[in-house]
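<context>
A single protein, sequence plus fold
<entry> Chain with its tokenised backbone below
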Amino acid sequence: MRNKVMTQIDRNEEMVPPWEEFPDYERYTIGWRMGSGEDYLDCWYDFVEKLPDDYDTRLDYLKSHRPAPLNWCSHVFGVLSPDRKLEQKYGCNQAETIELLNLGLVEHDAAYHTWLKQQDDLKLPWYWFASKTPEEAARYHTREFWFLSRQLTTLRKHDDFSIEDLLEDMPSKWQSVELQLTTRQLGDLDPSSGLLTLARMLCAGSVLPPWELGLAPDDGTDSFEMDMGYVDAFRMWIMSAFDDDMLLRTMLQKTGIPDNWAEWIEEETDILQPRNL
């Protein structure tokens, strides 16, 4: 990856920003610190350093690509105005974020729409790497699984779409979510099997908050293991799926967020911030 990208830079070829190249990578995933994500990000930093210093050229570069998610704001300013000192040490404050929103350089829910534009066809999750079971897909491809779930929700509205035709090659280990894929019914859910519960919800296109399953914040054990319960799986989903709080807040407010759960979500995921951008 690094050699390929460095060749692009040597040829003065324009690099796609990392949020557009890897929309299925959340901002703080370890994928930016190892493997192809790390190589790409390092090369992109080198590319940005070689851009002309003038504001208009850098603005044109950013506008020629997909808007960034809101949690990439500081990087967008690093391209646009590298000498500008932001008001806070990490990320951008509300005024700075609004400035980028008005310029069209960041966007709510940007990553999903970037990812969707890149999909030539429907890629079912059992073809993903390290996804031999629904639990593995929910654990290791949480964000992409969520994007696929949303894509399926849209496709199911079309009269000519039939998912049954796509399930002929479903592996036997994935049959535990066949009901959810074909009927969108959640069926029996066992909150102690958090990853399978999350996978079934994603296949059905309906992620329920844990309070609707009678769970309390104390039911979480701060686990990221394969045997995690649903409270921990729900936390992992929030951390992986959302780059800002607008869509999440809209979804959760439809069910009503108990105060103790709102506090838990903000403490555990740093996503439900007291703002409305």
User: Anything to note?
Assistant: Residues 35-49 form the longest helix (15 residues). Residues 109 and 247 are 7 Å apart (CA to CA).
